[in-house]
UniProtKB/TrEMBL annotation:
Residues the record lists as binding NADP(+): A157, W173, T199, S225, G296, G297, T298, I299, N300, G301, S302
Organism phylogeny: Bacteria, Bacillati, Bacillota, Bacilli, Bacillales
Entry protein name: Riboflavin biosynthesis protein RibD
CDD domains recorded: Riboflavin_deaminase-reductase
Catalysis: reaction(s): 2,5-diamino-6-hydroxy-4-(5-phosphoribosylamino)-pyrimidine + H2O + H(+) = 5-amino-6-(5-phospho-D-ribosylamino)uracil + NH4(+); 5-amino-6-(5-phospho-D-ribitylamino)uracil + NADP(+) = 5-amino-6-(5-phospho-D-ribosylamino)uracil + NADPH + H(+)
Annotated residues for binding of substrate: S171, R187, D203, L207, R210, E294
Family affiliation: In the C-terminal section; belongs to the HTP reductase family.
InterPro entries recorded: APOBEC/CMP_deaminase_Zn-bd, CMP_dCMP_dom, Cytidine_deaminase-like, DHFR-like_dom_sf, Eubact_RibD, RibD_C, RibDG_C, Riboflavin_Biosynth_HTPR
Pathway: Cofactor biosynthesis; riboflavin biosynthesis; 5-amino-6-(D-ribitylamino)uracil from GTP: step 2/4; Cofactor biosynthesis; riboflavin biosynthesis; 5-amino-6-(D-ribitylamino)uracil from GTP: step 3/4
Entry binding sites for Zn(2+): H53, C78, C87
Length: 364
């Protein structure tokens, strides 16, 4: 049985926040629960960039009951005039007596000022309840707001011996339906999905979100140094925007043909290969805050070697296909085991007969 206390209400606020994961663009997900004398009087979440913050929705619901209430907020209430007015002023104005905050806001425009302002106005503020859970929900926001670079997650689906196809290249399907549904949830939650052109040429992938309920499509990004993507490729079907990352040495005529199909072509460096660090910078400038890489061994290896990966999610099926089959990570690797790329904060989840191992590379 759940016991009613501060943690209970903060968990409710975290759940409200996580319901909007994937739909707030470069904004964080935030939840707020307002409680007055033992009664929940308002629940809100930030649902869309440019629209109401979590506190505003919850306070609007609470109305007069906000006076003397406690507000549980998963992120420090903002203190700046952004697309919406500052939440800390609204909390003060409504007469909220106590505010419980999970995590401080790393946005340099806020960064502690929201909490300071509330305290100056005589509001009792507690900070740090379920802080880790809140930070994890906003791991992409936390990186983007400080660096203007997208948070990069590599996802692979491999056999237990780390292979992404058989020796003939056959790969449908490695993991089962439960794992594949989880991958579509990841697509919904990331702003963009990135693959190498070889994936397009081999599978004619559409790269959209296909769930049992409607999901959001990520922006589709293809790393294509020579612009070999066919104009008839499904990735250009208009279901979602498509960006082709290429080099200055790619044929200009191909670029025009692909642009005529609706693609945006972005040159990243002189070539012969796409400068991936520069590519991330340019994608960040376009306000792409998170990227799911479903790329194939070469892209995965290059990103890892360049230290550009924030998170890895390795789906494993209980199958073995032998050493002639292609690997999920094509990179040379170190001479000594002590120099291997290590994952930190590793967790394991089950999806049907498969597993997902999640970790954060130590070299990022
Ligand atoms: C809050 N509650 O629900 C959210 C906050 O452009 P704006 O006006 O939407 O402001 C975005 C910034 O506000 C964002 O970068 C982050 O610092 C904060 N987000 N703050 O008090 C919320 N979404
Ligand atoms: Zn706010």
């Amino acid at each position: 049985m759940e016991v009613i206390n501060d943690e209970f209400y903060m968990r409710l606020a975290l759940q409200a926040a996580s319901s909007a994961a994937g739909q707030t663009s470069i904004n964080p997900v935030v939840g707020c629960v307002v409680v007055n004398e033992g009664r929940v009087v308002g629940i809100g979440a930030h649902l869309k960039r440019g629209e109401g913050h979590a506190e505003v929705h919850a306070l609007n619901m609470a109305g007069d009951y906000a006076k003397g209430a406690t507000a549980y907020v998963t992120l420090e209430p903002c203190s700046h005039h952004g697309r919406t007015p500052p939440c800390c002023e609204r909390l003060i104005q409504e007469g909220v007596k106590r505010v419980v905050v999970a995590a401080t806001d790393p946005n340099p425009l806020v960064a502690g000022r929201g909490i300071k302002r509330l305290r100056e106005a005589g509001v009792d503020v507690t900070v740090g309840l379920l802080e880790e859970e809140s930070r994890k929900l906003n791991e992409a926001f936390n990186k983007y707001i400080m660096t203007k670079l997208p948070f990069v997650t590599i996802k692979t689906a491999a056999t237990l011996d780390g292979r992404v196809a058989t020796r003939t290249g056959h790969s449908r399907w490695i993991t089962g339906p439960e794992a594949r549904e989880a991958v579509h949830t990841l697509r919904h939650r990331n702003a963009a999905i990135l693959v190498g052109v070889s994936t397009i040429l081999a599978d004619d992938s559409e790269l959209t979100t296909r769930l049992s309920v409607p999901g959001l499509h990520p922006i589709r990004i293809v790393v294509d140094s020579k612009l070999r993507t066919p104009v008839s490729a499904r990735v250009l079907n208009g279901e979602a925007p498509t960006i082709l990352l290429t080099t200055e040495s790619a044929p200009a005529e191909r670029a025009r043909e692909l642009e005529a199909q609706g693609a945006e072509v972005i040159a990243c460096g002189p070539g012969p290969r796409v400068d991936l660090a520069l590519a991330l910078k340019k994608l960040g400038e376009k306000e792409i805050g998170s990227i799911l890489v479903e790329g194939g061994g070469t892209i995965n290896g290059s990103l890892l070697e360049a230290g550009l990966v924030d998170k890895i999610m390795l789906f494993y099926a209980p199958k073995l296909v032998g050493s002639e089959a292609p690997s999920a990570f094509a990179f040379q690797g170190p001479d000594r085991m002590g120099d291997a790329l290590e994952l930190e904060n590793v967790s394991v989840e089950h999806f049907g007969r498969d597993w997902c191992v999640t970790g954060y590379p130590s070299n990022r």
